[in-house]
Amino acid sequence: MSLLGFTVVLGLLLGVWAQHNVLRPLCDSPKAEEAALVAQDYLNGQHTHGYKYALNRIEDIKVQVEPNGQETYVLEIDLLETNCHVLDPTPLANCSVRPKLLTAVEGDCDVVLKRVGGVLTVTAFKCKTEESTEDLCVGCSTLLPLNDTAALDFVQASLAIFNNNTVNVTYTILEVGRMSSQLVSGGPQYLVEYVVVEANCTNDACMPLNDPMAQRGICTAKGFKIAHSVDCKMFAAPMVKSCVSIHHVIFDGQK
């Protein structure tokens, strides 16, 4: 929902709340935690790019109960980026939160929910994300924009190493998830993550295979352009949830 739409919703709620009492449950109450988890799952379901987020804490909650028994919640929650890409079938409960030293990203969200017939449903939300910068050391890795030319060259170099070690299949980039760099004695050292998908290649031109069964995975590459390692975790197509198979392929590249 747009910021304008969210503002209109909040404006209407404030008008209603001027006429009714507002409940303020404790942030660690079952009511608050239930609403926060519903919001977390809904927000993750809206993502088609990037990474899954896990609930960190509940900042505030207000609940207005209308005469007909319908409840409206307004939540302020903090979310933390995990290591699981949204295409990764790993359940959120099994995804680890990204450490701050690895350029973690935090999300601050305002969420409006309604409870009708005992079921909580999100009706509006507004989120902003930013890199967590507190407690970072001098010389630590810093996030790079996803259009950084040198880092993208590093992505392509690492993908070439990976493809050179696969048999009867070629992969292409579906999405670059994140890129960071750290200045060391040998120059910038890169750490990149990107999603790959099985490709259809003709005359050296490769396009993502337009098939729901096409193999996908996420790769992590680290090092310098002329010397780096690549670790790819492949997973089955999302539609085959009952037969998920994950394996790791690790290569060291030297040019």
UniProtKB/TrEMBL annotation:
<dbReference type="Pfam" id="PF00031">
    <property type="entry name" value="Cystatin"/>
</dbReference>
<dbReference type="InterPro" id="IPR000010">
    <property type="entry name" value="Cystatin_dom"/>
</dbReference>
<dbReference type="GO" id="GO:0004869">
    <property type="term" value="F:cysteine-type endopeptidase inhibitor activity"/>
</dbReference>
<dbReference type="InterPro" id="IPR050735">
    <property type="entry name" value="Kininogen_Fetuin_HRG"/>
</dbReference>
<dbReference type="InterPro" id="IPR025760">
    <property type="entry name" value="Cystatin_Fetuin_A"/>
</dbReference>
<dbReference type="GO" id="GO:0072562">
    <property type="term" value="C:blood microparticle"/>
</dbReference>
<protein>
    <submittedName>
        <fullName>Putative alpha-2-HS-glycoprotein isoform 3</fullName>
    </submittedName>
</protein>
<keyword id="KW-0732">Signal</keyword>
<feature type="signal peptide">
    <location>
        <begin position="1"/>
        <end position="18"/>
    </location>
</feature>
<keyword id="KW-0964">Secreted</keyword>
<dbReference type="InterPro" id="IPR001363">
    <property type="entry name" value="Prot_inh_fetuin_CS"/>
</dbReference>
<keyword id="KW-1015">Disulfide bond</keyword>
<dbReference type="GO" id="GO:0031012">
    <property type="term" value="C:extracellular matrix"/>
</dbReference>
<dbReference type="InterPro" id="IPR046350">
    <property type="entry name" value="Cystatin_sf"/>
</dbReference>
<keyword id="KW-0677">Repeat</keyword>
<keyword id="KW-0325">Glycoprotein</keyword>
<feature type="domain" description="Cystatin fetuin-A-type">
    <location>
        <begin position="22"/>
        <end position="130"/>
    </location>
</feature>
